Amino acid sequence: MWDFFTRPVRTRSTEDGSTQGSRSSTVQGETPPGTAFSGSPSSFNQGFLRASQNKLFHLLAPTVNFKDVTLTPSVSGMQVKLSGRKTSLDLQNSKDNLPDITQLPRLGVQKNKLVIIMVGLPGRGKTFLCNKLKRYLNWLGHNTQHFNVGNYRRKNKGNEEQDASFFDQKNEAGARARQEALLLALDDLMEWLKSGVGQVAILDGTNSTNERRNFLRSQFHGRWQYLFIESICSDEEVLNSNYRAKMRYSPDYKGMDEEKAVMDFRKRISNYEEVYEPITDRNLHYIKLIDMITGRAHLDINRISGYIPGKMVFYLMQVCKAGGTGESCGKAVMDFRKRISNYEEVYEPITDRNLHYIKLIDMITGRAHLDINRISGYIPGKMVFYLMQVCKAGGTARKLWLTRHGQSEFNMGDRLGGDSSISAAGDRYASLLPAALLSRLPPDGVISLSVWTSTLKRTIETARKLPFPKLQWKALDEINAGTCDGMTYSEIAKTMPEEFAARKKDKLRYRYPAGESYMDVIQRTEPVITEMERERESVLIVAHQAVLRALYGYFQGIPLDQVPSLEIPLHTLIELTPMPDGTMHEARLSVDVDASEAQFMHQPPPHADGLPLQPSYTTSQTVA
Fold this sequence. Notes:
This protein is α/β, with parallel strands linked by helices. The protein has a 7-stranded mixed beta sheet, with helices on both faces. Strands 10-11-9-12-13-14 form a 6-stranded mixed beta sheet, sandwiched between helices. The longest helix has 23 residues, at 172-194. Residues 1-97, 101-107, 322-330, 389-396 and 607-624 have low confidence and may be disordered.
């Protein structure tokens, strides 16, 4: 016997008056509501819940909740029966009772729908990857939702303590609660995909056994495409860092001493390790990420095809870029250390105070300082200032900054596009921007930073005084207004009323005549996003309103239809700090172009983990 939940189906009338759903089979005879009815095996193969008589459907429709229907085989054929909603599934005792996936009826897979099923032990970066993928796919226009089973578990159990013993495989109450959370997540996931807007659903959980994964396959097989993403990590240093980061932000350990929390979390992982079964079935569609942020990282990609899965693989290769090349990298390090040792035998530090020198001591550690001896003159002085910024002591989390160019001449006249220079106010912003940015760098830390601009004059002029390497991107140029370039919106409304109305109706997809739409800008800036995900140093982007709306929408997971209306004001520095779960913390610093650099002196320094301490400027919460 096997027993599993059938999810809600939408029915429609056919030409012969019967009804069809996403799974259907012919049911014989008239059956009173609330009792079992059966059909032959051959009728079952025609589908599930297909009523051949109108009367049967009308009899059941007022009384049957399809969420409460389960399937059970019987000696005489297949039975459909009503049962309690969440109590008929017992995964603990169903190892041999799950259906043969290959025998389930295939009514045509909806290939435009995809389920991504996460697999892996706790603390392996699954939620981080979920948030990254959700943000990326939504940004590309594929409506994606993230269903975290842990959130359903916490919501279901309220304030009840869920320490490591809750996850012990011998804890029957804990096992039932986790199953309940899974079913609630599945209900919402399936409703999302059945809706008119849902395209991709990500199920975030451990899903650590073949039994659990087979159950999930039974839910999705024949309905939607699905694939597994398994995250594996064996590097103890990386894992310990992950655990501690998780303790700071996980609701399960809120307010708990960090050492005690880490100890409990390790016990939880140990409970999962007792039953964990890595994916080994080559018949499955999966992406396996192994030691994804170490020098030994690699991806095992099995039976992956199609546009969205292909884009995901490419994206994950950037996000999970290997830090080295494994054994060969280790040999190179060993050889380099020997080279250094040869130099150390004859090395003599500078001690002669008669020399003109700058000595950088422990420049990338928390103890860094500069010894400046007999340095004078304009260029040497500028060098010292620059080195004081580049060689600030102490490492910090990578940051991203976004800012529009300073006010341009076209901005003053509310004109679109063009390649005008910045105005007097824009020039003052360019002069203040270095001090504004430096005020956001940690006072006792080192940060490697580069500046990216578009190829248009107003961004290049705005960034010209920043003391960091610069890179120009054609992909960062402002949205192409086509034949409307150089016009005001008032002029467009007067001379091109149909274009003006079309833009107002759908700003996201409206394309200027011979120009671009916001969707075009999003596609154009994808290489920039890819490079930013690969980049390990901090980046400041000086660009344009439409382009920054697209980039900001990606990093903060903003729905696409809201992207064209995002507020990206002039003369404002937007700071984004990556969080352990893949989301971004945001802070904004408004620059008063009529004030001096002193306005930045009272800004609170960034905290050690990259977050501002009680910022006095506008901040907003992470948009998930």
